[in-house]
Amino acid sequence: MGESYPSLRIDQHPILDFGDRKTLAFTFDGQPMTGLEGDTIASALHAAGVKVLGSHFKTGRPRGYYCAIGNCSSCLMIVDGKANVRTCTEPLRAGMVVETQEGRGYPDVL
Amino acid sequence: MFYEPDLAVIGGGPAGLMAALTAAKAGASVLLLERDRHLGGQLVKQTHKFFGSEKQHASVRGIEIASLLESQLKDLSERAEIWTEATAIGLYEDGVLTVEHQGVYKRIKPARLVVATGASEKYLSFPNNDLPGIYGAGAVQTMMNVHGVKPGQRVLMIGAGNIGLIVSYQLLQAGVQVAAIVEGLPVIGGYIVHASKIRRAGVPILTSHTILRADGRQSVESAVIARVDSSWNPIPGTEETIPCDVICIAVGLSPLAELLWQAGCEMRYVRELGGHVPVRNERLETTVPGLYIAGDLTGIEEASAAMVEGHLAGLEAAASLGYKTESYEAERQDCMEQLRSLRAGPAGQKIRQGLSRTAALPVSRPEVDHAV
Fold first, then answer.
1. What is the pLDDT of residue A12?
2. Residue A43 is nearest to which of B37, B132, B147, comparing CB atoms?
3. N or C: which end of chain A has fewer CB within 10 A?
C-alpha cells in the first residue's frame, strides 16, 4: 500500500486546479499514511489505494463507500476511538487515528 | 428556546439557496440550514456548463453558480442567517423543526418553511453489488471534482441518462479509462450532445444491455454484461466479461422526502418523477399549509429547474407573510414561464406527465399506482 500503489490523485485536469495542498499525516490501522488538505478521510484512503473501509455487521462482507455525501452509511469507520464516523464527509485532520470498523463498532453492541 | 425566523429553508443546494435569497430580498428574515460544511449542494461538483437560458446561468459551470448564489446570500446577512453542519432531524404537526447544528440540538418555529432536501441515488440489484469499487455516479463526481481523487483506473458505467453521460465525460477529463456505458433501454436517455462527445472519445454506449454480476475478491475486478431482449431478459450467449476496477451506477435518483412524510404531507408515487413526491399547488405549497417545496424533492429534474422552483417557493412563502414586492407578479409569471420552457419538447415529456399527477385530487379516492 502507499508507495507502491499507483496514485489515484488527479494531477492534471482541463478545468479544475486543486492547487498546492498541505500534506496531512494520519494512521490507518496503525500504519502511517498521508492525505492532503481538503480530503475527507475516505478520499485520502482511496487515493492511497484503500477501498475496504469495514465489514458488514452480519455477513462480514467488505464495505467501501457508495454515495460519498453522507447518505448511505457504507463508509463507517472508527476515528480517534469513536465508532460509526461517516468517513466520506468527515474532513481529514493531521494526527487522526483511523481504524477499520468490524461489526457495529462497539464490542458491547450486538 | 425557539428560533423564530419568518422562513426556514432546509437544504443549501440550488433550490434552497434561491428560495432563501428570494425571500430575504423580499424582506423576510430567513434561516438556511445545510447539512454539509459548505453551501451549494451538488452544484459544487458540477464542472460542466449549464444549459437552459441566461436566467438559469446557462454556459456557466455548476461550481461557479454555487459560489455566485452563496455570495449574493451573504450580502443579505442582516436578514439571512446561514447554519452549516445543520441536519434537520424532525418536523412535527405543530410546525416545530428540530435540528442538530454542529453538535447542538436546536428547535425552530418558522412562520413558513421551504423544504429543498434534494435526492439520493438509486441502486441496482445484481450479484456482488455490494463490492467496494461499486460507486454511485454522484460519489464518483464528488471524489474527482471536489477531492481530486480518481475512483480507479478503468470504469464500467451503468446508465446512459444525463448523469451517466456527464460523469463518463468527467472521468475521461480526469484521465480515467471508461470501458463502456451500459444502458438497459434501447435508446440513450441523456442529451445527444453529451453522448456524441463520449462516442467521439471512443467509448462505446451499449444500449439494450444490462449488468449480470460483478466479480472480485475484496473489490471489483470485472463485470459480466449481456444484451437484453425487449422484455429486459438477458439473451443467453451474449455474455461478455469486462475487466474493470470500478462500476459506476447512474440509474437515477429518488426524492429525499422523509421530513415531508413526518410532517404529514399528502404523498403520491409518481414513477416519472423518481418515487414518492408531495402533492402541491401551483405555488409549490404542499397539503400542509405554509410548507413549500423546491428542487429534486418535488420530482427529479435538472439543477436549472431546481433554481427556478426555489425562486418561486421563496417568493410565494415570503408573499404569504406580507413580504410582497412590486415585482411579485412579474417574477411569479417569469418563473412559471421559465419552468414551462425548461420542460418543453420531447425531453420534458416525462416530467410533464409526472407533474400532471401531483395536483391535489378534487375528491379523495384510493391510489391505484403502487411502488414496484
1. 83
2. B147
3. C
- With respect to residue A69, please indicate whether it lies within any of the assigned structural domains: yes
In DSSP terms, A78 is beta-bridged to A99
Query: Which residues 6+ apart lie within 8 Å of B182 measured at CB?
Result: B156, B157, B158, B159, B160, B206, B209, B210, B211, B225
Q: Quick check: is A107 in a domain?
A: no
CA of B164 to nearest chain A CA: how many angstroms apart?
A: 15
Domains and CATH numbers, chain B: 2-120+253-355 (3.50.50.60), 123-249 (3.50.50.60)
How close B280 gets to chain A, by Cα (Å)?
26
First to last CA, chain B: 44
Is the CB of residue B115 less than 8 Å from the CB of residue B291?
yes
- The predicted model scores a pTM of 0.88
Average pLDDT over residues B250-262: 95
Nearest to A66 among B139, B147, B175 (CB): B139
What's the confidence (pLDDT) of residue A5? 55
Q: Tens digit of pLDDT for each residue in B174-221? A: 999 999 999 999 999 888 999 999 999 999 999 999 999 999 999 999
Task: List the domain range (segments joined by +) for residue A85.
Answer: 21-99
Chain A CB contacts of B144 below 8 Å: 10
CB-CB under 8 Å, A66 with B136? yes
CB-based contact, B172 to chain A, within 8 Å? no
Predicted ipTM?
0.91
